[in-house]
Amino acid sequence: MYKVEKLKVNYKTLEEFKKFREYGLQELSMFEDLEANIIEDDSVSPFYGIYFGDKLVARMSLYQVEKKFDRYFDPAQDYLELWKLEVIADYQNKGYGKALVEYAKSFGLPIKTNPRVKSKDFWDKMGFSSVAYEMERDRGENPLVWYPDGVKEQLH
Amino acid sequence: MYKVEKLKVNYKTLEEFKKFREYGLQELSMFEDLEANIIEDDSVSPFYGIYFGDKLVARMSLYQVEKKFDRYFDPAQDYLELWKLEVIADYQNKGYGKALVEYAKSFGLPIKTNPRVKSKDFWDKMGFSSVAYEMERDRGENPLVWYPDGVKEQLH
């Protein structure tokens, strides 16, 4: 229904990112690296997004964590960490967030995210569930995970 | 000026925690462990707080991370991770947050926190600074750190 695109790092994209609430050190760092020519214009980013016309209206960041760092899944394996899933205000409740999460699932890897507290219903619908809290791993996070077939929670 | 207390895990404290915005899996897990007698009433918690009368008005969680996991400080060492620093609405701007952060500093260890985006001015005043963003370490975080004398940023 919506076309999910891998976002390139360039000034146009970084300008669009300013419309999102969860703008932080990651984006500032990309901007500084671009200005200092540490990264090239149009280099790959960890962000995926959906455009409405030429306007970026939804985005998420994905990072593949290596198996040796996996403390969430059994069997231990590479998994995706998903963060900064966000749809800008006028475009919410139209399926953009769902389209991004389904895109993330299409890689076939387990997914872990640390959502904002008020988004629980959305993540329930997406098939994500809580893990048993472990302070030394989770600190102040509220981890939610998605298990592909054959994967379950890693118990410690 | 204010007395900082280490909070015990009991039903009264867990009830007070519900007044704080950043109530999440950590608190729910403590509640379930108490109900299931997995932890005893009045067992130690990672939380510190300040009472106004018998009302908990400010809190933070602290956890000492072991040197072998330190990816922020040079020389690598045990450090404190601080999260869920929060003062309830009617008691803000009265020095409660500052008192808690100064208490954390009094342990003499470096501190790392991942604050909400809008609290930058507060953390500046507390002497915290940004680190160079590293995606595989920081993901969606906006890490701020405080260096005791003789400690600097760990560069990778």
Question: Can you characterise this structure?
Answer:
Chains A, B: It is an enzyme of class 2 (transferase). Chains A, B: Its EC number is 2.3.1.-. Chains A, B: Keywords: Acyltransferase, Transferase. Chains A, B: InterPro entries: Acyl_CoA_acyltransferase, GNAT_dom, YlbP. Chains A, B: GO terms for molecular function: acyltransferase activity, transferring groups other than amino-acyl groups. With about 160 residues, the first copy, chain A, is an alpha+beta fold. The model of chain A has no long low-confidence stretch (mean pLDDT about 95). Chain A is globular and about 45 Å long. In chain A, helix 3 links the parallel strand 5 and strand 6. Chain A starts with a strand and ends with a strand. The first copy, chain A, is built from 5 helices and 9 strands. The first copy, chain A, has a single domain, classed as Aminopeptidase (3-Layer(aba) Sandwich), CATH 3.40.630.30. The longest helix of chain A is centred in the first third of the chain and has 11 residues. In chain A, the strands form 2 sheets. The first copy, chain A, has a 7-stranded mixed sheet with strand order 1-2-3-5-6-8-7, with helices on both faces. A two-stranded antiparallel ribbon of chain A has the order 4-9. The interface between A and B is medium-sized, with 27 and 27 residues.
